[in-house]
């Protein structure tokens, strides 16, 4: 291609309108990235909420007969609801952990050390933040509790030996440790005149509730997700649908106008002997590059937003909930945008390149 002609072409298709289109696309794509991340977080939250110990707990009357409850093979624990709560354990003057009773040994994945075998032993989360919850938490102070193995810690009334560590659980405190039920019974923990039952798997919820109804046992599910979760999950979906339609319409109109305004340029290219294949290739590459620039700008803006909000997620991090970037969803979305751009621009340039030089130049 003649370099003067190429320079002329570039001078025609560059301009403020193209930059504006890139910035608008970047803004809309960034919104999609944010919405996809919110959807990913809401899904992670819902899964964690339903699969932790609390998510497998129901409350029944304190008068409920344990013999009836034991008939159900899926119920692994039934006792006072005090075991839903924990004991505030202060040690070494400024350190603090939250101690709970180990109701289900299969619930924890031991990483270092061993499981509890006798009284006075304790298991702690692998990444342990041995301080109270506050709005100014410094998670750089979190420790690998492996360093505490075989160490004894004590407060004014009790002492325990840390014998193992376990994988941090989502929706559980970053300062949580477990002791046996027998050791937990030594603590003065208030109950609320209810009996808690813990069942083995979340998917057995319907079986458990049917069993309770069949035995005329009233129950309370303390873990019903409120409307916030519904909004957190559905609103971003609607926003994505709206944004996608806006992107498709704006991109189509921009590409159509770009090709229509390039009739003279395409005519000049043909006059200089450029074949249709190269003309198509040039415009396809040009618009794909514009989309790529939009995606890159969006990724940079999103990364900035992602790191900016981290200090405001202290409560989520304290409960081992992290805002994970859904890279696979991002890649699928970006690929769809490139495919759409390719298909539309190829269709439009095919129609235009079939015109003869006279029609293009007039």
The radius of gyration is 31 Å
Largest pleated sheet: 7 strands, mixed
| Chain-averaged pLDDT | 83
Note the quaternary state here: single chain
Strand residue content: 15-25%
Number of distinct helices: 11
Helix/strand structural class? alpha+beta
Number of strands: 13
Measured between the Cα atoms of the first and last residue, the distance is 23 Å
Principal-axes geometry comes out as elongated
- DSSP helix fraction: 40-55%
Kindly describe this structure.
This protein has 362 residues and is an alpha+beta fold. Helices cover 49% and strands 16% of the residues. The chain contains eleven helices and 13 strands. The strands form three sheets. Strands 3, 4, 5, 6, 9, 10 and 11 form a seven-stranded mixed beta sheet that branches. Strands 2-12-1-13 form a four-stranded antiparallel beta sheet, with helices on one face. A two-stranded antiparallel sheet has the order 7-8. β3 and β4 form a beta hairpin. α2 packs across α8, α6 packs parallel to α10 and α8 packs antiparallel against α10. The longest helix has 36 residues. The protein is elongated, with a radius of gyration of 31 Å. The mean pLDDT is 83.
Give the topology.
Elements: H1 3-13, H2 16-51, E1 57-61, H3 66-69, E2 75-80, E3 87-91, E4 95-101, E5 110-113, E6 121-125, E7 127-128, E8 143-144, E9 152-154, E10 159-166, E11 176-179, H4 181-184, E12 194-199, H5 205-214, E13 219-220, H6 227-260, H7 263-271, H8 276-309, H9 314-318, H10 327-353, H11 357-361
Helix pairs in contact: 2-6, 2-8, 6-10, 8-10
């Amino acid at each position: 291609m003649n370099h003067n002609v190429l320079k002329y072409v570039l001078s025609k298709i560059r301009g403020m309108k193209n930059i504006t289109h890139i910035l608008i696309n970047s803004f809309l794509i960034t919104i999609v990235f944010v919405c996809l991340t919110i959807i990913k977080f809401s899904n992670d939250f819902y899964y964690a909420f339903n699969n932790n110990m609390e998510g497998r707990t129901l409350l029944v009357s304190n008068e409920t007969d344990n013999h009836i409850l034991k008939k159900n093979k899926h119920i692994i624990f039934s006792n006072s609801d005090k075991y839903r709560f924990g004991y505030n354990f202060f040690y070494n003057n400024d350190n603090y952990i939250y101690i709970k009773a180990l109701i289900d040994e299969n619930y924890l994945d031991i990483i270092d050390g061993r499981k509890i075998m006798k009284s006075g032993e304790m298991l702690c989360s692998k990444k342990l933040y041995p301080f109270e919850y506050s709005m100014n938490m410094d998670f750089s102070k979190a420790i690998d509790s492996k360093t505490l193995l075989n160490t004894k810690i004590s407060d004014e009334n009790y002492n325990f030996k840390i014998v193992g560590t376990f994988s941090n659980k989502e929706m559980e405190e970053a300062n949580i440790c477990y002791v046996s039920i027998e050791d937990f019974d030594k603590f003065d923990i208030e109950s609320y005149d209810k009996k808690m039952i813990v069942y083995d798997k979340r998917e057995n919820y319907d079986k458990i509730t049917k069993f309770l109804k069949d035995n005329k046992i009233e129950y309370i599910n303390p873990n019903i997700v409120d409307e916030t979760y519904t909004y957190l999950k559905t609103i971003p979906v609607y926003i994505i649908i709206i944004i996608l339609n806006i992107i498709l319409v704006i991109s189509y109109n921009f590409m159509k106008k770009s090709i229509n305004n390039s009739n003279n340029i395409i005519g000049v290219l043909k006059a200089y002997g450029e074949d249709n294949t190269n003309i198509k290739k040039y415009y396809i590459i040009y618009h794909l590059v514009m989309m790529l620039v939009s995606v890159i700008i969006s990724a940079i803006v999103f990364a900035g937003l992602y790191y900016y909000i981290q200090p405001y997620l202290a409560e989520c991090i304290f409960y081992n909930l992290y805002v994970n970037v859904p890279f696979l969803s991002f890649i699928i979305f970006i690929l769809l945008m490139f495919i759409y751009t390719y298909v539309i621009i190829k269709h439009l340039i095919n129609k235009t390149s079939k015109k003869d030089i006279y029609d293009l130049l007039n």
